[in-house]
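[Solved] Which block belongs to which protein?

Original post:
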Amino acid sequence: MNSNDDQKHVPLRDVAQSPEATARYLAEVQRVLLDIGKNLEILAIETRVHLRKTHVEGDRWYHARLRAMPVEKALGNVLKNLNNLTEGLEKSAYKRRSHDEAVVNTAKDRKEKELERQRKKNPQQLQAAPTPPQQGARRQNPGYSAPTSIYDLGNRESA
């Protein structure tokens, strides 16, 4: 491709580059399809009524219904496919937004993983635990948590 082709306006390129624009566009297409769906539902009902009223001489009461069933089924399949299409439009708009969020979060996740790798390669030196007091040494400030006996109350009073 040359630079002239790149500079031409490609339809829907700007819509494809923005998740908000994509969602707006797909919502508009969905509105149009739902309007078409309403018209198709009315058409299916009217077709059903007309075909089931059409009797030929010598028919039994169910022959018109049997002749109408393939047409009704075909229109029902069209409506079902239309509903699946509108659901797919909603799902694709959601997936488009989810994709952009994943792209944004990927950089953060990679930085966090790199920091974790660095921590694993170069672990920090562990600080030595404080040495416990010797058995014979007395603590400066014995509190309630210090083990004492009733004979060794020091300057405290008993209850």
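(Second protein starts here: sequence line, then its structure tokens.)
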Amino acid sequence: MNTSVHTSLVVQLHTPGTGRYPVFVHLGYDAADPFAVTAVFAHDGRVLAHWRLAREMLAAGLSGPVGIGDVRLRPAGTGPGHELRMEFLGDTRPDGGRQRAVVYAWASAVAGFLRETHAVVPPGSERAPVDELLADILATG
């Protein structure tokens, strides 16, 4: 049985003034960390950003706006070609503002990836190894 899911997608990075340009995102999921999806954004062989996203939040963002912190997701457009709009807020700039990136991905591709993760660990059956973590902490304390 597979315990991980991986896919690479071409997404569109939106930059003010220049429009959109394609970048790759590699999405990864591992049953050992069942609540999280990793997203590694790259262009020309260079990693631009690496984010850990809540799998449930990623799924919810396909149908409505979610997120109030550093990651905000929402559907963009309607119909079969609609996209998932992902906004990422980064470090504070010297002028007091924050770094910001907006990325658009085909919603159907993200939904397909999530379906594969659900086959590995169905929603609601995720378990965190809390007992093992507490045992490790108590053993070293």
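Accepted answer:
You had them paired correctly. Confirming on the second one: The chain has a mean pLDDT of 90.
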